[in-house]
Amino acid sequence: MQRLLFRRIPRSLRSGLLSYAALGLLIGLCVFIIVSIIAAGITVIEGTEKAARENAVEDGHFSVFEPLSQEELSRISRQGIAVEPQFYLDFTLSDGSMLRIFENRRQTDLFSPDTGRIAEREGEIALEKKYCEKHGIQAGDILKIGPYSFTVCAVGSTPDYDCVLKELSDTAADSMAFGTAFVTKEAYLQLLNSGESTHAQEYVYAYRYTDRSLSTAEKEVRDRTLKDALKELSCSGGEAFLHLPLSALLFLGSEVPNLTSFVPAAQNARIMAAADDVAINVRSCYAAGVILLILLSYIISVFVIHQIDREKQVIGALYALGVSTRDLLLHYILLPVFVTLLCGTTGLIIGISPIGVQTQMLDSTGYYSIPELPVVLSPALVLYGVVMPPLVAALVNYLVIRRKLSRPALQMLRGQETVEDVVPLRIRRLPFLRLFRIRQLLRELRSELAILFGVFIALLVLMIGLDCYTYCESVRVHFIEDTRYEYMYTFKYPLSDPPPQSHTAFAKTLSKDFGTYSFDVTVLGLGADDPYFGVPKLSGKDSAVVSSAFAIKYRLSRGDTFTLKDRETDSVYSFRIADIVRYSPAFTVFLDIRSAQELFGESDDYYNVLYADAPVQIPANRLYATTTRADIEKAASVFIDFMMPLVRTLTLISALMLVIVIFLMMKVMLDRSAYHISVVKLFGFRDREIRRMYLDGNLFVILISAAICIPLSKQIMDIIFPYFVENVACGENLSFTPAMYAAVFALILISFFLSEFLLLSGIRRTKAGDILKNRE
Amino acid sequence: MYLEVRDLKKSYGAGGVRTDVLRGVSFSVAQGHMCVIQGSSGSGKSTLLNCIGGIDTADAGSIRVGDEEIVHLSPRSLLEYRRRELGFVFQFYNLIPNLTVRENIQVCEYLTDTPLDMQDLLLTLGLLSHADKFPSQLSGGQQQRCAIARALIKNPRLLLCDEPTGALDSATSREILCLLEAVNERYGTTMLLVTHNDSIRRMVDQVIFLKDGEIARDYYNEEKIPAAQLEDL
Fold first, then answer.
1. CB contact under 8 A, A682 and B79
2. Model ipTM value
């Protein structure tokens, strides 16, 4: 019997090819999305962790005014800490980009070449890969830095510049503008002596605990101990003292602390940034995977229930003829299980192929400087893609067929609907068409719920993309609009007399935690005549005006109180928000300059930032950094340029999901009514009228779905999205413009009308005579 | 004559496996008459009904309904013909399960600008108390009455009934036939009934026997008796 029944399977597949194709496409698409994103995330996390281990990533680094003495270094080493100097020089190249030059590393943060080998001769240089990609540089090319030419001997990455941020407080990496490079000791000395670096040599030391079994908590304790010890070190004098303003010297006496910054790896936005970035993707995708699985299960259920419903007369006949329940179950389970298995497996294979994982990893590999990573596939994904869809299909089939077989065989033979199948709602005094549509909607509630659910899931995917777009576009627009100065100079050693036509300010970098991250927040003391920030008149140390970026990121509003921490001294400062001004490029707390100076113990003539509309001649060795409006304009579009492919992909996927879910469920409804459509055709109903009776009613479902799902999915995504960008030092409003809402609504309507258009051919194909054939 | 069929031919298949289902069938039915078509399985009676109903096309010959020749009409014109002229009653009722009795009748009411009075029809067919019930809440006879009401609401000139009592017991069959008789008398509807039931031919005006696609007998019933007096249904 089973063999005989088996012959029906290919025939059933052929007759329902369109429905099975749509269902298969939906399953494949869902599995593909989940598998590719999670596999990419796991690959990045596990791959970068492995690379960080192999390349001896630092446990932290610190910078000092002047180099540590041998004795000081030995004292640290005796504590089981390997310290390696990672001094650097920044050079501006002829194309305006900046290269940070390091000496070859030997112990910590080792260079991992993708191609070539590390610099071994004076004229050789190893370059960071993202900079090379953006500038089209390959191994063997010649690069001119200062007065010297170098041959590129390697292209690769280092684990301490996973995210190639110029400054730790930078919002985004811009590899067009900045990269890192590694040369021999001799070449480094030549460059140092050339005097052409944009600022003085930075004295940075990377440290790494020799005991690799330390836990995170133990490392934190040891970090604190090391930091306290370093804070005790003071400058011996020399260069540092020479450049300090007189007032600072008077204030500090001879005890100028040598430590300028201390950054444990956990607080370093450059380290493990790619893994941090995708960790939230993986977590949210596991959650999304469960939601999609529920959607898939529901849609498979509706589909299977409908298929069995259509077959109830055959089931009744076979059952009445004595075919066993087991044989029937096996027969009806085979096709949906085969289709779901095939499509789930296909989705999995494409998901882990270069089309899936490698494409998803572009988000990481296109932005972060990480080594080439082999794809890691977790068993959970195989379970998800290959086992779950057929299991759901089999289970639903089993339950539905069991339920069907519990009915009297005669009822199934006659193909009658039972009283329970009908929603007994009394409807009076409605025009026929409207009444018919309501009845049809009530009859197809299950499919309509699937549409609503499907629209919701598709919109969630779309909202990720649109929130991402809104966020990046706001960054681009607001960064440019809110930067009103042309030049910002950050001083290591300020000039005693600020140049005319410039505005001085005092900046102090503090920090504030956000989830597992800690961000730099600049307390900026502004003069009363400041023309650049539009901050209302300020007074007092406790009452501050904050930038919109800061307020949005930390969900603060006027009147709220917040605290900031000084990482160097562990002091905590508390402020109350007097006002919020729109300023997107940085997390900034504005005070009047005198209050800021007093708060941080600086004299009333001290400043360390200078804003100007025209370039100011300042000796390079006095500067930490120079930031121009042009730099910010370039950096502003980094996010949107980088994220647009993802936005497009998500929009396409969600549009596909919308069309498939709406089409599939409407097809199920239409198929369920095929017999009655042939009846009404026989009575003389025109195709146009039949469309109005059987399809147009779904427009109400679509409108209701849109009315519920657009605001709901937006609300949910607005809550979730900040966690996706938890590691980004930006705060932007995620509000959509009315045009964006209209576009989302239009996308839903287009999906509906497209599905309706595709299904109309089915109505046209249904013949009035089908009903009589059925009788025969 | 209201319905005139002339030399109607229809075959299925192609080449060597061609089956002639109708081989030059000719007959006519006067307006307001009840006509039964009988024959064994495969005799061509269903094909004949389909061709008259405009849901199958004849290969040759002519079908004239009223003043209209329908054999070579386009699908669109055939649809308009069905909409305007015909009513259908099926063996298994084919009511729309999620519509009440009243709503099922409304389906066909929608097709005409001059429907019969719904309340009057419900009363005539004994459905007034069942008007708000769904098909699954009705007996077979009640469902068939509903199907007849649905067919009649647009006041068709020709009612095609395909085994209207085929799924009913004897008493209910009699009830349905009485109803069709009453409708025929009251509205003057021409009726064409395809049936296996021999007793029915005693209550109609005209009887046609089909055999192997040809008319074996076509006669007018001289001794027509009321449906209520039929035996062996």
1. no
2. 0.82
